[in-house]
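This section describes the prediction task in plain terms. A model, or a person checking by hand, is given the sequence of a single protein chain and must write out its three-dimensional structure as a string of tokens. No templates, partner chains or ligands are provided. The sample shown here is typical of the held-out split.
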Amino acid sequence: MSDGPARAPVLPAALAWSGVALLAFVMVLPFLWMLGTSLMDELGVFRFPPPIIPAPPRFANYPEALTALPFGRFFLNSLLFALALVVGQVATSALAAYALARLEFPGRDRIFALILSVIMVPAIVLLIPRFLIIAALGWVDTWPGLISTELVSVWGIFLLRQFFRSIPKELEEAARLDGAGDWTVFTRIILPLSRPALATLALFAFVDAWKNFQWPLIATRSMGMRTVEVGVASFHSLYYSNWPYQMAAAVAALVPILVLFFVAQRYFVRGIQLTGMK
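The expected answer:
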């Protein structure tokens, strides 16, 4: 009789963990299939049921796939593109967020609401206007055309504004009593205290730039300007029937993001927390 109350929560907990394990398996299964396909021979894909781990695995698919197209150049382009977006989005988001969080001026809240309304506009709707702008400037298939329209992040402005508003105003007021101006307060107080939020924004900006496909596809023309995601799509058009090569290229493109996620996982969690702050 004494064991009854202690055993009561066991079944709901077991069911909850079973549901979590099943959901995790469903989420991971496509990646396992992609990894297994990348290690098959060309005809192994058409076996039924396809093996999750082929025997023997064909690791030669990776060097062969990555040398079939200039993937070294693609990876370099993605890295430069991502780093440029990290610098641009962190700078523009921090400046705009500080103005919207700390400075007093007419229409501040309406401007912020207008900025947030941009989030409701589907990104694909803006592709043609953005392309027309860079085409008019002669920036198609150039670095300025690829980078310029990606330097502002509405989500980044919202994220940093939320964080800036959580910093005690007493610190800012004390600095102003010592003669500090807006720029000094921003660079000497707000930014140093906001390193976790800035790191979170930089991380999300890097990941978003690395996996960006639509805009690099439209803004670039030559192989020398392609990013890794567009390179994988080009690989698909050239080697349509060779699924192991395509999956090997896709796995290679995914590895940097996975490494970055495991190294900086706490910043991903921090980003979710910050967007929920009042």
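For orientation: The mean pLDDT is 85.
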